[in-house]
Automatic annotation (TrEMBL):
InterPro entries reported in the protein's UniProt record: AAA_GajA/Old/RecF-like, Bact_Antivir_Def_Nuclease, P-loop_NTPase, TOPRIM_OLD
Span of domain OLD protein-like TOPRIM: 482-546
Name of the molecule in the record: AAA family ATPase
Domain Endonuclease GajA/Old nuclease/RecF-like AAA: 1-432
Length: 666
């Protein structure tokens, strides 16, 4: 299952986060310090925590300023049901295959493709349901059952079953109620007994009974499916910067603390216990192997000691290989890469071996490397070596890494996210990729009385919340402006997303050496064109065919810097004339469908066939229409569709656009 949406309430700085859209692969929560990013992750973790490192407590975790007012008029049972976090999960193809193997499943029973498993976790109570699953109510069966009773009345031997059916309906008078599992089984038994009393040639009543049986089995299967999905619910793996693996562990002391449940430092001890789980031992087992042999069975003791040594050696090799993959060390700079786990009596040590062969304790290496090692060990041990059904919650990952290492670590997160849906928080511009801005959610806290809010669109009431995004764009723009020999100037960020989406549908036919540079507005095109041309870099500009684009295209500076043939207008790539066309018109029909799905609004066919720009049509249909929201929806659409899902004309438009850019920058 994949998490598609969450809603957090009544947790620390969060009164009501609003419903937060979660991406299929990776979602990034961006916000300033104290905005509530950590609170969001910890609340989400409670949907199905992979460990009990931090359990919720109403007194400690409920928003403090509202606590007295909230609890004074509520019973203990009511406070236990205080809303905390709600999660919506969609079923994936593998889930559907397993569901087909359930005892009560039949193909014609119900369409599961649109069903969502919803888990509603309260402070000390949990409920769950399946949305978009049409369950049977007593109202759905009442009339047909009464007609069946009427048909049975002519059979003198059916009086007992008639009485039981009447009693069943009489005891369940509320037509809006769903049949429970017990009610469904009871009713199914009655209907099957009634079937025997009906003449087998009476097709009308046999058909009625068949339909009643199907309606009943829908609810029986619902209970079975609900139980199955509850067991399939992904575990949430939470990791923050404070969880570390100590470089030196005293096994006997850790064993005693664990036995007496007096973990003195939950973050360090948690990291240490994770290391031992990674090694395949409990603290007690490894501690006992560190005691001098007092047994007469010397051979057995030696065998266990050897087994410990072999396991530690194998784990050291595995740890080294995995850390190399995610750390990507530079051997020319003697960056840490090789690790060794050593057991010496009651001490367990994690050491790093440098290029000279010297063993150095882990805590003598950089903070960034210590964090990386701890991250991997905790994740690996919590996931129980099975990455298939875990959702990663990374709280401010890699803050102790150098900026360039942070850029590298984004790739590591992407690798993890291929197998494990990932949500991470950050306020570092280097942890935000320019081509993944559609994955960003803005977290802000502008008023304590309102609490933490999350915006699904890249908008914010607090300019500081957008600062990391601005920095990320600025850094990427600066990096690409004078390093790429081929450049495309775009008016804005949404143009970048559309062009990237089109390129992905065309199997990335755009020359990989070309940098896409969103400059902000068409008015700024002249500045960037001048700077790039002065550095002898090949550049084209892609401009809308509206008034602003026309003004930019006719500026003397732009024409002089780029040359007329390198000023591309969107109207050049359309099969028919569209007034004031923009890049959106290149994929006009597909965007109209995406718009209708996104806003649940049916567009006028005549408008779509007119010469109006598609964005103008959208703005008339929806007052608060957002170009950002639609472009993000298009990017998401491209990940789930192929080129063949565009219309033939759109394929021609897109192909011509990419080929023209490649040709102009050849």
């Amino acid at each position: 299952m994949r998490l598609v949406k969450v809603h957090v309430q009544n947790y620390r700085s969060i009164l009501d986060s609003g419903e937060i859209d979660i991406e299929n692969i990776k979602t990034v929560f961006v916000g300033i310090n104290e905005a509530g990013k950590t609170a969001l992750l910890k609340a989400i973790n409670n949907l199905n925590p992979g460990s009990d490192i931090e359990q919720v407590n109403l007194l400690r975790d409920f928003p403090r300023s509202k606590y007295s007012e909230y609890v004074q008029s509520k019973s203990n049972e009511e406070t236990k049901k205080t809303p905390l976090v709600k999660g919506w999960f969609k079923l994936e193809p593998n889930d559907l295959k397993e569901i087909e193997g359930l005892p009560s499943f039949t193909k014609d029973l119900i369409d599961l493709n649109d069903c969502l498993y919803v888990r509603d976790q309260r402070y000390d109570y949990c409920s769950h349901e399946i949305q978009n699953y049409k369950r049977t109510t007593f109202g759905d069966i009442r009339k047909s059952t009464l007609r069946l009773i009427d048909a049975l009345s002519s059979n003198s031997s059916a009086q007992e079953i008639i009485e039981k059916l009447n009693n069943f309906l009489e005891n369940n008078k509320d037509d809006s109620l769903y049949l429970s599992l017990d009610s469904s089984k009871e009713f199914l038994d009655l209907i099957e007994k009634a079937e025997i009393k009906i003449d087998e040639d009476d097709e009308k009543e046999i058909s009625r009974i068949t339909q009643l049986i199907k309606l009943t089995k829908i609810n029986i299967f619902y209970s079975e499916l609900l139980s199955f999905l509850n067991k399939k619910l992904p575990k949430f793996i939470y990791f923050n910067n404070y969880i570390r693996v100590k470089p030196l562990i005293h096994l006997k002391q850790l064993t005693d603390r664990q036995a007496q449940n007096i973990i003195d430092d939950k973050y360090y001890d948690y990291g240490n216990l994770s290391l031992l789980k990674f090694l395949g031992y409990t603290p007690k087992e490894l501690s006992e192997l560190g005691v001098e042999n007092n047994s007469t069975d010397t051979e057995e003791f030696r065998r266990k000691r050897d087994e410990r040594q072999y396991k530690l050696n194998a784990s050291s090799i595995r740890l080294t290989e995995c850390i190399k993959e995610i750390w990507n060390p530079n051997n020319l700079k003697d960056e840490a890469s090789q690790l060794r786990v050593i057991a010496d009596g009651q001490y367990l040590k994690v050491a790093v071996i440098d290029q000279l062969g010297a063993e150095i304790e882990l805590d003598q290496r950089s903070e960034g490397f210590q964090w990386m090692v701890s991250f991997f060990i905790v994740f690996e041990s919590q996931a129980d070596n099975d990455y298939k059904n875990c959702i990663l919650l990374l709280d401010e990952p890699a803050t102790s890494l150098h900026a360039l290492k942070q850029k590298e670590f984004i790739k590591t997160i992407s690798k993890l996210a291929e197998k494990n849906q990932t949500i991470y928080t950050t306020h570092s511009p280097f942890m935000i990729s320019q081509d993944e801005l559609d994955l960003v959610r803005i977290v802000e806290l502008t008023d304590r009385a309102i609490g933490t809010k999350v915006n699904n669109k890249i908008v914010s009431n607090d300019p500081a919340a957008l600062f990391p995004l601005q920095e990320a764009l600025g850094y990427n723009l600066a990096q690409s402006m004078f390093t790429a020999k081929k450049n495309v100037l775009l008016e804005g960020l949404t143009d970048l997303w559309y062009l990237e989406g089109i390129n992905s549908l065309l199997n990335k036919n755009l020359d990989s050496n070309i940098a896409l540079l969103p400059v902000g507005t068409s008015a700024k095109v002249s500045y960037y064109a001048s700077m790039l041309s002065n550095n002898d870099l090949k550049t084209v500009a892609l401009l809308d065919s509206d008034t602003a684009g026309e003004k930019a295209a006719t500026q003397e500076t732009v024409i002089h810097s780029l040359g007329a043939k390198n000023i591309l207008r969107t109207k050049e790539f359309l099969s028919r004339e569209i007034k004031n066309s923009e890049i959106e018109d290149i994929i006009r029909e597909t965007l109209a469908k995406i718009f209708q799905d996104e806003y649940e609004i049916e567009l006028n066919v005549a408008d779509l066939e007119s010469d109006k720009a598609i964005v103008d049509i959208f703005k008339i249909a929806v007052k608060d229409f957002s170009k950002f929201k639609l472009s993000k929806a298009f990017l998401k659409w491209t990940r789930e569709h192929s080129l063949s899902d565009l219309t033939d004309q759109e394929i021609q438009n897109c192909t011509k656009l990419i080929e023209t850019i490649n040709k102009r920058l050849k």
